[in-house]
Write a structure and sequence with these properties.
The protein is of the alpha+beta class and about 400 residues long. It is built from 10 helices and 19 strands. The chain folds into 2 domains: about 270 residues, Aminopeptidase (3-Layer(aba) Sandwich), CATH 3.40.630; about 120 residues, Alpha-Beta Plaits. Strands 1-4-8-5-9-18 form a 6-stranded mixed sheet. A 4-stranded antiparallel sheet has the order 13-15-11-16, covered by helices on one side. A 3-stranded antiparallel sheet has the order 6-7-19.
Length: about 400
């Protein structure tokens, strides 16, 4: 059998592994869960007989999580050239269930129906995790050594910042500059996009300090809600006007500045609020620096504060400047494009996205990374599913990454 046929022969095992894994909750402590330990232990046991040359755990300490750790698993096949490694990095953690009433099935009792596997985390990121795992098994079963070491990594904490996942592995020095890294955590239904760039993620908390008073005598106070609302409107307009450049690699091709979360300022109606808090979620194209964004926000805050008498304080809640895009002619992109064309019969396009993946941290370390998978984009939704066809075909692509194609 060739490599694709070997992957195809593992289809039933892949579905079984996916169903068993999705039964195990892996929600981060930040989101009210216990972490990924039980899922990691299941995966370690499942792959123990695959024939990897090495399997190791790289735990990050987290006293909030079950067992006090956030586990990360690395399983490696030695290649002809052991100086470099081809990585496929997926994540074990999932977002919470959300509104359970919107689910047609139990999110942690997976259902296989009509060529799909339903369950929380099926598409984000279970499909890619299982696909990469069985791509490695197919390489092992074929008996052919890959060009370089071939490692699959199952990381924790992707959904809540990656501190205990990919950032922890980077601090351990596990990656080399010439490694080839694929992060299968973005995709489209036809599998025809390779993500090579991400916008900067910039979350800003805005606190307005006024003076609380009874709402029947508002002239004795300073309404923090009114002042904060004025600031929101004016800074929103200023940001869009000053940072209006376009980059057609992205969709949308501009920076976005979205006011999102609003905290409760007081429980009662009959008082002028003395404090008000809201947040911006901004996704910034590489042409703009996040420090320039904050400079403008401070400039507008100072002016509105003087005009209203309130004190308006924008502060960084999360700020990650995007690294340069992965070059289109880098080995990871060339290998991935070739493998996708072999399996799917068409050349994928190169894109940038506004979301964040582990690839951003890899790129920040100076290592080119590409993001790719084939998904119906049901992640984070009720009735999340993955297509079994996508599971198998993506595994074929990952397996072919290990070998130069003529």
């Amino acid at each position: 059998m060739n490599l694709s046929e070997t992957v195809e022969s593992l289809k039933d095992d892949m579905v079984k592994a996916m169903v068993e894994m999705l039964r195990i909750e892996a929600i981060s402590p930040e989101s009210g869960g216990k972490g990924e330990l039980k899922r990691a232990e299941f995966l370690e046991k499942w792959i123990s007989g695959f024939g990897f040359d090495g399997i190791k755990r790289c735990d990050a300490e987290d006293s909030r999580a079950e067992g006090g750790v956030r586990p990360n698993i690395i399983a490696t096949i030695y290649g002809k050239n052991r100086e470099h490694t081809i990585w496929v990095i997926s994540h074990m953690d999932t977002v919470p269930v959300g509104d359970l009433s919107k689910w047609e099935t139990d999110p942690f009792d997976p259902v296989v129906r009509d060529g799909k596997i339903y369950g929380r985390g099926a598409e984000d990121n279970g499909q890619s995790l299982i696909a990469s795992m069985y791509a490695a098994k197919a390489i092992i079963d074929s008996g052919i050594k890959p060009d370089y070491n071939f490692s699959v990594a199952f990381v924790s904490d992707e959904e809540t910042g990656s501190k205990y996942g990919i950032q922890h592995l980077l601090k351990l020095g596990l990656f080399k500059k010439d490694d080839i890294v694929v992060v299968p955590d973005h995709g489209v239904p036809d599998g025809n996009e390779i993500e090579i760039a991400e916008k900067s993620i910039y979350w800003v908390k805005v606190t307005t300090y006024g003076k609380q008073t009874h709402s029947s005598i508002p002239h004795t106070g300073i309404n923090a809600l009114r002042a904060g609302s004025r600031y929101l409107v004016e800074v929103d307009r200023a940001l869009h006007e000053r940072f209006s450049e376009r980059n057609e690699l992205f969709s949308p091709p501009v920076s976005t500045f979205e006011p999102t979360k609003k905290e409760e300022n007081q429980p009662n109606i009959n008082a002028v609020p003395g404090e008000d808090v809201f947040y911006f979620d901004m996704r910034i194209i590489p042409e703009h620096g996040i420090t320039d964004i904050m400079a403008l926000m401070n400039e507008v805050a100072e002016r509105v504060s003087k005009e209203t008498g309130a004190r308006i304080v924008p502060e960084v809640y999360r700020g990650e400047q995007s690294p340069p895009p992965t070059p289109a002619d880098s080995e990871v992109v060339v290998r991935l494009k070739t493998a996708i064309e072999r399996v799917k019969g068409k050349e994928p396009r190169l894109v940038g996205i506004g979301g964040g993946t582990c690839a951003a941290y890899i790129r920040l370390a100076g290592i080119p990374a590409a993001v790719w998978s084939t998904i119906d984009e049901t992640m984070h939704q009720a009735n999340e599913y993955c297509k079994i066809e996508n599971l198998v075909k993506d595994a074929k692509v990952f397996a072919l990454l290990g070998f130069r194609q003529s």
